[in-house]
Design a protein that fits this description.
The protein is α/β, with parallel strands linked by helices. It has 2 domains: about 30 residues; about 110 residues, Oxidized Rhodanese, domain 1, CATH 3.40.250. The protein is built from 5 helices and 5 strands, in the order αβαββαβαβα. Strands 1-5-4-2-3 form a 5-stranded parallel sheet. β4, α4 and β5 form a beta-alpha-beta unit. α3 runs parallel beside α4.
Length: about 150
């Protein structure tokens, strides 16, 4: 009985340790962020969606790093005027629309843009919103992998 209890305690400790390690790998504190871990969309997933013939998610660029193919450029999310611009765009959307926001200027833990933007998505009551998982930056986590960027004219 004591061995079983000890094994359960060890298993619980390991589970919590793994969860903590994953949040640190992503440079986020899962308990205090405005998004849930399941709301992080991996770059490969978004790239696959953009390559498909199915309906694409609505993508908002809320940072200065570059524009992913089909993204709407809002401007830096740390600026109140840009968050208001984002709110004007998302109020037009159906609450079930798949929406992805990204910045990519720096690691998540330092980014001044993603939190205000994601909070705006939450306030709007969107049910299918995601943060593109760019834990380092757009260059490393998207561009270097050959994923599609907007073409400039």
């Amino acid at each position: 009985m004591k061995k079983t209890a000890l094994l359960l305690i060890i298993a619980l400790f390991l589970g919590l340790s793994i969860s903590f390690a994953i949040s640190k790998i992503n440079n986020v504190d899962a308990g205090t962020e405005p998004w849930q871990p399941e709301q992080l969309m991996e770059p490969a997933v978004l790239a696959k969606k953009l390559a498909s013939t199915e309906k694409h998610p609505i993508i908002f660029n809320i940072g200065p790093s570059g524009i992913i193919k089909e993204a709407i450029d809002i401007g830096s999310g740390q600026e109140k005027a840009n968050i208001e611009k984002l709110k004007k765009e998302i109020v037009k959307l159906d609450k079930s629309s798949e929406v992805v926001v990204y910045c990519g200027c720096c690691p998540f833990k330092n980014c001044p843009n993603i939190r205000p933007a994601f909070e705006a998505l939450n306030e709007a009551g969107l049910k299918n919103s995601f943060l593109l998982n760019l834990p380092e930056n757009l260059r490393v986590d998207w561009i270097a992998k050959g994923y599609p960027m907007a073409t400039t004219k």
